[in-house]
Design brief:
This protein is an alpha/beta fold and about 280 residues long. The protein has a single domain, classed as NAD(P)-binding Rossmann-like Domain (Rossmann fold, 3-Layer(aba) Sandwich), CATH 3.40.50. It contains ten helices and ten strands. The strands form three sheets. The protein has a six-stranded parallel sheet with strand order 2-1-3-4-5-9, sandwiched between helices. The chain has a two-stranded parallel ribbon with strand order 6-8. Strands 7-10 form a two-stranded antiparallel ribbon. Strand 1, helix 1 and strand 2 form a beta-alpha-beta unit. The longest helix has 22 residues. The chain binds NADP nicotinamide-adenine-dinucleotide phosphate (NAP). The site of NADP nicotinamide-adenine-dinucleotide phosphate has 25 residues, from helix 1 and strand 4.
Length: about 280
């Protein structure tokens, strides 16, 4: 089994290098080796992978507002090319998307079938990437996730803990809800689902392909998340300057991903569950 991984240097891509390796030979391309601003088709056709995993993306949400064309090329144009190439080769395409495809006005957790309505350039380009995959007809898994954190890379958790060491007070908004998701959880779930999917007879795989929300259970606000991080760091004896009472983490929600996991009968539910707080504390 040949796996071609784009975005190997990112938070999720880095963890995928480890989690995908039991599936077969993984060719891992970082930004330089697999630049989505250039055409990706020759790279794919040279490798002729069985599985293409795309963890590369233009993820600078604010900067995308002033670089919309670049964000569109990376998040949608290149993704469409990958999907067309996957369809021609009969390869499976695994791709990641975001809660930014929604407008945020809903109450409670979004379902996969809920209407999209991105409000930002980043959200619109990520939705265009999803649509290009669906239009290509390739076998695909699109995992929408949110608030990714990892030991490696830039993320909210690193920023808050750095500031909490040097500032007396922190101001963090509490009107935006989301679910912190570890890159490790995303990568492990990806590998498990792909492994089980490939065990299913080819004729039945199409029914299982599609778009899934991949986040742990629960939800929090940026303020709740920051408070959790600071309190956990303090309890672990890390030097924290910010005053007490400033944050918490998450488990995979049921939803369609839960159903997929159940359909792939040999996968234990527990393999993709656990609260975000437990995972973050680890
Ligand atoms: N981060 C989040 O909170 C979050 C939330 C929801 C969904 N997602 C989605 O989850 C996926 C993985 O995100 P992540 O957190 O792992 O992002 P990340 O850490 O920002 O990694 C993205 C990777 O893509 C690379 N990249 C950027 N432009 C590229 C290009 N033109 N060609 C090739 N590679 C390029 C980046 O390289 P450089 O560092 O060199 O630019 C980086 O290694 C993405 O699809 C993202 O949209 C992320």
């Amino acid at each position: 089994m040949k796996v071609l991984l784009f975005g190997a240097g990112g938070q999720v891509g880095w963890e995928l290098q480890r989690s995908l390796s039991p599936l077969g030979a993984v060719q891992a391309l970082d930004h330089q080796a697999g630049d989505l601003e250039a055409t990706v088709v020759p790279l794919i056709n040279d490798t002729r992978p069985d599985i293409i995993v795309n963890a590369a993306a233009y993820t600078a949400v604010d900067k995308a507002e002033v670089e919309p064309e670049r964000a569109l090329r990376i998040n949608a144009g290149a993704v469409g090319e990958m999907a067309q190439a996957a369809a021609s080769l009969g390869a499976l395409l695994v791709h990641y998307s975001t809660d930014y495809v929604f407008d945020g006005s809903g109450v409670g957790a979004y379902r996969e079938s809920d209407a999209t309505g991105p409000l930002s350039v980043y959200g619109r380009t990520k939705l265009a990437g999803e649509e290009a995959i669906r239009a290509s007809g390739c076998r695909h898994l699109i995992f929408r996730t949110s608030w990714v954190y990892a030991l490696r890379g830039k993320n909210f958790a690193h920023t808050i803990l750095k500031r909490a060491r040097s500032q007396d007070r922190l101001q963090v908004v509490d009107d935006t809800f989301g679910v912190p998701a570890s890159a490790e959880l995303i990568a492990d779930t990806t590998a498990l689902v792909v492994h089980r999917l490939l065990d299913v007879p080819a004729a039945d795989q199409a029914d299982l392909c599609g778009t899934y929300h991949l986040v742990p259970a629960g939800e929090t606000t940026w303020h709740g998340y920051a408070t959790f991080l600071i309190e956990t760091a303090r309890s672990l004896g890390m030097p924290i300057r910010v005053a007490p009472r400033c944050c918490r983490i998450l488990a995979i929600r049921g939803g369609l991903l839960g159903e997929l996991v159940n359909k792939l009968a040999t996968v234990r539910r527990g393999a993709v569950s656990g609260s975000w707080q437990l995972r973050a504390e680890a």
